[in-house]
Amino acid sequence: MTTKNQELTAWVSDVAKHTQPQKVVWCDGSEEEYQQIVDLMLNDGSLSSLNSDTHPDCYLHLSDPQDVARVEHLTFICSDDPATVGDNNNWMPVADAKEKMNDLYQDCMKGRTMYVIPYCMGPIDSPYSRCGVEITDSPYVVINMKLMTRMGTKALSRIEAEGSFVKGLHSIGELDPDRRFIMHFPEELSIMSYGSGYGGNALLGKKCHALRIASWQARKEGWLAEHMLILGLESPEGETHYIAAAFPSACGKTNLAMLIPPEKYKDWKVWTLGDDIAWLHKDTTGLMRAINPEAGYFGVVPGTNAKTNRNAYDMIQQNTIFTNVGTTADNQPWWEDKKVGQPETDWKGNDYDANAGPAAHPNSRFTVSATENKAYSSLAEAAEGVPITAIVFGGRRRELAPLVYQAKSWEHGVMIGAGVASETTAAATGQVGIVRRDPMAMKPFCGYNFADYWAHWLSFAERTGTLPKIFHVNWFRQDDDGKFLWPGFGENLRVLQWIIKRCKGEVGANETAIGYLPCDDDIDIEGLDIDPAVWQSLITIDDQQWRQEMDEFGEYLESYGDRLPDKLREQHQQVRAALG
Ligand code: SAT
Ligand code: MN
Hints:
Helix 2 runs antiparallel to helix 5 (139-148) and helix 11 (410-418) runs antiparallel to helix 12. Strand 20 (326-327) and strand 21 (333-334) form a beta hairpin. The protein is built from 16 helices and 29 strands. The chain is of the alpha/beta class. The strands form six sheets. Strands 1, 4, 5, 6, 7, 8, 9, 10 and 11 form a nine-stranded mixed beta sheet that branches. It folds into three domains: 6-45 and 70-222, Phosphoenolpyruvate Carboxykinase, domain 1, CATH 3.40.449.10; 226-295 and 379-578, Alpha-Beta Complex (Phosphoenolpyruvate Carboxykinase, domain 3); 297-372, Phosphoenolpyruvate Carboxykinase, domain 2. The structure holds sulfoacetic acid (SAT) and manganese (II) ion. The site of manganese (II) ion has 3 residues, from loops.
């Protein structure tokens, strides 16, 4: 296969000259091709088959133990204008980054196959979708991209028709943490990644393209590229509302997107459109519409069981690639909190030893096509996307943030989004469990200066007629003994119902300094084992804690200096003043 697109032909041939692969393969995205690459990996041992009776067409990949998460300290945005990139990113001048990367890439594919992967982020016929081509020497990347994107012939045709595409060059190199970089060149729509095979570092369509590069494009073109799940909530009467929700990595986006209503609400349905990324556009009538640029899920495995997420649990019984989980004696995949079976080997391929750490790495992942999900919304394939009723921000906060509250206006909602902070998780390397500011859950993913990003968000007040209402949730409140105060998972439906009722103007609320909080009886907690005093603490705020939070947040905002939009500063001042 070759292409009519001369830019692509020239780039592929330049890269091949520089990296010296043994051969070049253009991927067509077919099932046969997927199977061929799986077989090749089974042969060379980089993949193994799991129990084919219990888990047909499921495979296990064990990564290098030093290559299990995104590497934010090695991830850069490269532009000649550091102010545009902002302090929220690592910055490198374009020429320096290219020199560094070109040195690393020199002859790096010797003896390897170079795969050329044309892909489309979003439904292939959607005007909101964008295409890219990833060149990689990793067969693992190829099979993951097949599940995660619309990849192959159709994407290539779209690229040929449109003429433009994002260029992503990836090599696993030596998998040496000291020779590892993830570089983005938003001005020329290109990505260079070296030295890691892990999801967010290597599947370049995902965080690199669909968030970092796309956020830059979105600002120029008047839309938003966000770290958000998209779900549809259908009432027993058949009315469906779509919600987009932003949470930091490994804070339960996949679980919320695939929520199973509790017994009491079994006539309600939650449809999944996406679990990680949303592209939001204003349509011609002024509505905000969302598409999910991805076509599969790259989800956290530990904790997934028949109770916490039945849909996900069922979905990963077949046609799934597991990365860094353990196995049972009969070769089924095993992970912490699976609730069935016993581990025999761990994620490093050693005999399981409880004293040597978990069987599955805390950031072990499943990769699976979205079509395996029973709750997959047919509208996930709709070219025009779905209209968004509510935007929800959330973080992992032991204390402070109530279960749910609503912003008083779009501008106030932007401030709430900018104020998202969360305890860190295993999805990125570094210390786990410390609170860090993570505006809109985009700290690792916004490809430009946060101050300009907030200004862009604020500009939607003038751009669209009917804006979604904005909310903040916190499923993760704990008592002094570390016990979670809210049951979470399926019961979160009760909170989503309140959100929709608020959007429809069906219930009142308590106006507080930080926003509208639920009145006592407006969220149904019947049947939950929640002490009335605990419930009160979930739906009220501690002014003193909030004064401290807002002071810290204010300092954070001011660190953006003159670029910080006045409107955001005003919103912050209003809330701070109202807290007394
Ligand atoms: O970045 S990944 O896509 O690998 C996972 C995450 O952090 O959300
Ligand atoms: Mn994510």
